[in-house]
Structures are given as C-alpha cells and as structure tokens.
Amino acid sequence: MRITNAYVIVTSPGRNFVTLKIVTDEGVYGIGDATLNGRELAVASYLTDHVIPCLIGRDAHQIEDIWQYLYKGAYWRRGPVTMSAIAAVDMALWDIKAKAANMPLYQLLGGKCREGAMVYAHANGRDIAEALDRVDYYQEKGFKAIRIQAGVPGLDKVYGVVKGGVYEPAIRAAAPDETPWATEPYLDHAPKLFEAARERFGWDLHLLHDVHHRLTPIEAARLGKSLEPYRLFWMEDPTPAENQEAFHLIRQHTTTPIAVGEVFNSIHDCRELIQNQWIDYIRATIVHAGGITHLRRIAALADLYQVRTGCHGATDLSPVCMGAALHFDLSVPNFGVQEYMMHNAETDAVFPHAYTYADGYMHPGEAPGHGVDIDEELAAKYPYTPAYLPVARLRDGSMWNW
C-alpha cells in the first residue's frame, strides 16, 4: 500500500488546528493531528516543505521504519515542531493500518486493558465559591476526577480561570497577552481552595491541580506539603522540567503525587524523572511526543517504575489527537487518567468522531482506524487566525514562566 498523496489542512473553528491527511493507492486514507498551540504554521510548513515530499511512494504499512526515517534521517532531532510533525504522520499511518485491517486502532495496539478511560474535567472560578460551583456542575455530569483552579486575591488574571465559558488560553491577537504573577499569595491561597473542596464534596472525588510551571523547586515542595491533608490525585507541572533533578528536591519534601510532561516531546525529556521515580504521572501527549509509536515507548519505560500515564487533552489538541489518545489509553497497561476538555460545536462538526463520554469515562468507539475524520469543505470555512498563548511577568515587570 503506497502513499500517493499527502497534504496539510489548517482550520480555525474557534481555535487553530493543523491536520495532515495521507492518501494511499488503495484509496485508504488516514489523518493525524499536527497542532502546536501558538506555532501552528511552523509545523504546517515543516510538513509541507520537508516531510511530505519524503513520504510519496513509501509503503504506508511501514510505520516504524518511516518513524525512524523522519527522526534519524533529518539529523536535527527532537524539538516540538519536528516531533509534532512526526506525530501527525504516525497517527495517520496507524489510522490507515487499522482501517486496512477493518479494526478499531486499539485492537492493533494489543487490545483493550480496560472498558473505558477515566477522564477529568476542568472546574475554574474567579474565587473559591465559583470554582466549587463548577465542581458541582461536573460532578453532576458523572465525572469522577476534576481539576480545580481558582482566582487568587490580588491577581487580576490567574492561569486556568476565565470570566465565564470554557477556559481557552490562546488569544486571537497580533501579540501575546501579558499576565501578572505573584507566588506568595498563590501559595497561601491554594490550600484554602482544597480545604473548601473537601469540606463540600468529601473524599470520593479525585481532585487535581495545575501549578503550570510557576514555582521554584522548594516553593513547589512547600505547596505539595501544604496540600497533603487534602489528598490530591496529582499536583501538575509544579516547576519547569528542563532540570529534571529539580523534581528530586520536591519529592524529598512531599508525598503529594506529581504529574508532568505536557510540553515534553521525547523520551529523553522524562527519562530521569521516570527512572528515579521523581514523578507519578507522565503527561506527554501523542501529538507533541512523536505519535503513538513514541508514546508507547515512554509508557513502557514508565511501566517499569510504576509511573502511570495522564495524557494532556486540552482544546489545543484536535479531536484527531483525542481519538488516537483514547485508543492508546484503552490499550496501555499503566494508564492513569485522561484530560478531557470538550471542544465547541463547530470543532466537533469539522472533526466527526466515534469517541463518546459516559459517567466519567470515555471510549474511542469501534469504528475502523482511530475513529476521527475531517470535513474538508466545512474546515475551509474557518480560515487560520493568528493566536498566541499569554506570557507572565512578576510584579516588578520581569518575565516568568507561563
């Protein structure tokens, strides 16, 4: 089965998505997600100008060889643009292989290890009361796990909090939005949020929290220690992870479980974290970590050290990635939880999909392939619009981690 054509589709039904479509000589096609939030056109160009010309004529069934060819053959390895492009090819090829076999993708990945993937929702509010009302909203919809973010007194804008509606950090503008940050009030306020959550909802609900790289290692250790009484499912991205050993310091001081990795793009970004058991959940995602082929390697390494998966699943990943992730989730033995932020109606229409949600769990469906398609005619009605993630500054004006 030879690849005869491949092309990139950029669409913006509320936010920007990049999709790769690969077509074979037998009429079977597959699609992959190549979205890199705020840098979408860089990946689109990488695919169109450098990857697609190398795909034409290749055997679509040779997924591993094509992955190695794109990774090793480029000489310039890793990086978010390269790995997102490789991921799109990988997703599309797995889609083709499963369609050719007339099977849902999870069957080709070894079959299912569970009946459904537990997912977590996002509850946010401008203050504690509003955040807890959103927790109540999602609990009524059956969610067993909920991430909570709340506004911090004295800060006008706080990560994860929006004035009504679904949180979407990417802003359609000519330049990034700038947001203020101060660590001290946040460290004082966060434990109060989870104390109130446990008082209202008890102990049967899994509670999660995203620090979003805002703290130094010792500050993160302090936060984790202060949250121990409230038994979090995890504390996410407590500090930037370029220095993997920083998590050793955090681990020494707290038993609050740690999750990290949504910005990782290779196994080398998390190898020491996993091998030293400095984390409990690896959050690398299919689109940014080289596709299903590479994420399975990361999960296999993590399984040796009892580290579980918790794949990123925000709206900056298209339904194509969500569909592929759910097949991965169903098949991987050390699955932990899957993030789930619902896309808007326009996005769901552009990307018709087989996956479903019910009572706190999601299932990828039984359609051949990964179960997600793209309506190209409808996608063309939503042209690309420049959008950027914000940046953060401390009160003195200096740049900080967003």
What do these coordinates show?
The protein has 402 residues and is α/β, with parallel strands linked by helices. It has 2 domains: 3-104, Enolase-like, domain 1, CATH 3.30.390; 108-366 and 392-400, Enolase-like C-terminal domain (TIM Barrel), CATH 3.20.20. 36% of the residues lie in helices and 17% in strands. The chain has helices at residues 40-55, 63-72, 80-100, 105-108, 128-140, 183-201, 217-227, 246-253, 271-275, 291-304, 319-331, 345-350, 376-379; strands at 3-11, 17-24, 29-33, 117-125, 145-150, 178-181, 206-210, 234-236, 258-260, 281-282, 308-309, 338-339, 356-358, 361-363, 391-394, 399-400. Strands 4, 5, 7, 8, 9, 10, 11, 12, 13 and 14 form a 10-stranded mixed beta sheet that branches. A 3-stranded antiparallel beta sheet has the order 1-2-3. Strand 7, helix 7 and strand 8 form a beta-alpha-beta unit. Helix 3 (80-100) crosses helix 10 and helix 6 packs parallel to helix 7. It is globular. The N and C termini lie far apart (44 Å). The model has no long low-confidence stretch (mean pLDDT 96).
